[in-house]
Design a protein that fits this description.
Blueprint lengths: L4 H11 L6 E6 L3 E6 L8 H5 L5 E5 L2 E5 L4 H13 L15 H12 L6 E7 L2 E6 L8 H6 L4 E7 L2 E6 L2 H15 L1
Antiparallel strand pairs: 1-2, 2-4, 3-4, 5-6, 6-8, 7-8
Helix pairs in contact: 1-3, 4-6
Length: about 180
Amino acid sequence: MKRDFSQLASGYIAALGGKANIDTMINCATRLRVLVKDLDAVQPASAFTDLGAVAVTTHHKMVQVIAGLDVPQIIQEMQVQLNGMCRPDQTLDEYGLTYDGERARILYECLGLPENVQLVTTTGSAVVVQVRDLEWVDPFDVMLQLGIGITSVDKHGRQVYVYMSGATSVAKELNHLIKKHH
């Protein structure tokens, strides 16, 4: 049976609180990862499972929908519906973010409130973030589940070393986010 990706995309957009509630989206092979503006606007997990999702998890404003191997087709259709554009392959997402920009935004959510982040630099393959309070930083197992290329996390004093692919590019994008929120 052929799946109607347009209908699934519309359903997921509605379940996520509508177009205006979606901040950024990325995916892996089986999951939609969506940063929402208002978690209270997101419908209960049953709205997603009624559409065929296996499960839904939330962490701060990040909603992860485990939807199976059709995720690439679903997110492509969601991007079309959010943009009101035709389906060309894009190097930027619907919000003008690069892949590293999206990864930085997701990592930013793991670091606690915006005022917790004081300085971002790099060393080797690590993004080094100086924070005010380590207790606000998500644990490694949570960061690993986000599928944004994090291989390990070390904490020393008030510095968090996030080892990941493309660390320099992600750090650059993180610094742009910090400037916008401070």
